[in-house]
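Narrative of activities, Objective 1.

The group set out to show that a structural description can be obtained from nothing but a protein's sequence at a throughput compatible with the screening campaign. Below is one input-output pair from the validation batch, recorded exactly as produced.
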Amino acid sequence: MATFHGREKIFIHFDKPQYQINDTMWLKGYIVSGNMNTVNDSSRIAYIEFIDANGQLVKRISAICDLGLFYSNITLGNQLFPQGNYVLRAYTERMRSFGDSLFFQTPFKIINPKAETWRATLNELSFTDDRLFIAASLRADEQASLSNSRVTVALRSKNKTLFRKRMITDAGGNIYIDTLLKNHSDRKNFHLEITNKDLDLKIPLPDNNQPIDLQFLPEGGRFIVGYKQRLGFKALNIYGKGVDVKGIIKDSKDNTLTSFESVYRGMGIVELTPLQGETYTAWLDNGSSYKIPPAEARGWALQVGYTGQADSIVIKVDTNDPADTVGCFITGETRGYNFLKGRLRKKQHHELRLPASTFPSGVARITLYNANGVPVNERALLVWHDDDLKLQLTTAKNVYSNKDSVALTLTVKNDAGEPVLGSFSLAVLDTSQVSFNINAENIVSYMTLSADLKGSVETPYYFIKNPRSKATDALMLTQGWVKYDFGNTPGKYGYEKEFAIRGKVTNILNKPSANTNVTLFGRDGRNGIFFKDTLTDNEGRFYLRDFPLFMTDSVSTLIKAVNKRDKSFGVGVEVFNKEYAEMPQPETIFDPGSILFDTAAKRAIDRRSAVMEQLRRDGRYLEEVIVTAKARVPGSKNLNEDGGSDQTITQSVLEQTPKDDLLTVLSKQIPGFPRMRGMPFTIGRSRIEIVIDGMDLKFFEMNPIDVLQYYSAEDVKGIEVMRSPRYSMQYQVRFNEGKVDFMNPPIYVEITTHGGVGPFLKKMPGMYLLKPNAPFVGRRFYSPKYTSPDQETVFPDLRQTVYWNSDIITNKEGEAHISFYTSESKGNYLVIVQGSDLKGGFGTLIAPLRIKKDSE
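Output recorded for this entry:
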């Protein structure tokens, strides 16, 4: 019996874990039902979001799903995707009914090869009472320091700035902060930002002056007096990564009871029998201490584990309260299906032994309920029968040359050795330029393990390869939980079958306009043009559907409605906005030195520099000319002769959140901009003046908050911010009666609307301009073909992603044939294959491909 129906899972295979600016990300998605992992064709649209390290949406695209599969790609242009860490998140409309803990989410990195790399080292930190002292050093590499340089230092907690100061580093590249912070007892998610024109570093600060966060979690969720129980523990460093620890546990009398040591990625297990009225403390070898959760005087203890042969699961249930043994029952489920259910007898100790084959592969949950049906204990356990699909690659040669033709044969069988018909995606990476962790997330580990666990799992494939290890058991004790949250309305979000545009037409009296002709003119990219029309119903509503396949993510539409006299006067058009999942709270993701290149990335950048230098010597490369130009807003009435501004918010930025009102947009894009009514309409000591299409709101005595909440981002072509005297002077002369304030100049915000008529008419009658997030068909990966190894190319072929194929279909013999050409790189290759038989089976393969070196 299933505990619920309709859950879905998404997994996305994208070509590599890190990109350079302006690279293209290639991806393929798999959607399955959440119960038995079979193909799910109920949802026909998937949403893919790219979120920066501050938790802000950078880009959202959507893809058409067919038979549980979808394909897409995105160019990571430097305007939207500067160097940094990002999160890729994906979900369907239906998945929103179960809470965002089930959304697919994975990090990736973008590197700017031209940017300097810096290290920030936290030398000293103390946070006592309200006093904060920090000593940090900045270095470009192991030798050079950022000496005698101006930097801006800010202390932030999530999106709130607690301290900001301009400083100058000393001769050793050091900075020192000694300040008082008031009313900030919650010291979580603190981080230090150090910036100037050359660097942007973020340093996380540990809570309570401790560089390690160590938590102990009792098995089953309850720590009961008098029973020897296991506690899982997990230690994280300030970068949110597991760190190995060892130590001892003492009681309140300073007696050492036991020792503990992590077994993998900061996780481990320790056994302890708590006594009535006693407290326990864990002491690490470095002298730091952590409290063990207090034991409860009465309650249930649940223990679950494997027998020595791992062919059976043993469940032990104990209670020290005889009165609490009536009416209790236990269940065991995997992926929403119950495979165990029964009522406990009226006694204080129970032991149940089940064949491991009772549960399918996946995260099994044993839950104990009291007589009222309230869960009191839960324990997760990884069940793994080694029943993933078995993939094998056969090559025509053992070693390949540069610009050589590669022929691969992929063979797929199930665990019974039978050939499998399925859909697979394949990436070939140059390992001299891209590093790849073989224990990273893949379709097997995600569908079997990660999708049913809390938080981010480091190296999840390791646990699939070691399913009965102490490390895996420690993972289940610390992260073996996921919340299926239906919200207030069970199944609130249904399956989305197609892309459609819905809206309403009203007359001059704001009443529904029935049987009104609605026409949509659309453009797909630069060339594709399409047209739709319909009539409104008796409630004035219209529904536009059956759109063509879009080939780009740049779709724009103009919706027009006319009255019976074929006029737009007095006609209003409203489009029902598409709702998306809320942005997650940012989990501050740091690398130890902001962006630090790994060895492979560094080699790729050095190689690129060497190639460009060789091209210069050969006379085949034109020296780069850097042109600095201001981003212009078409139609802007900017008063500066050069159209200059201190900040420009372009239409491409506004299009990312078209339905946000301008108050929300400005508060996100302009640091310190007031977020709500009642706050001083200033940034620091400088007042804010709003100008729309060259018209000053102050002249019309209009409340700027009202106006900014009235307009939405889609109504605006662009926004220019003039905060420095250089750019605000002309505005002060025009709008401030010629009085120029050089000390605290007003900050002028020039808003250019599509209508261009100032703060009066937001939309033209009978018309609505809409840039929908329309699903599009991704383009194909271009793979060059060479007639011979001596064929010359204009630029050296140094592809990082040597080959990508998202549409590999095995035949009835379980085989598929793939071919591509090698590049000019001397590095070896790694072939990553992932896919599904669409019936609940998943498989992955990571295999090397050798390239002949010059010495061979």
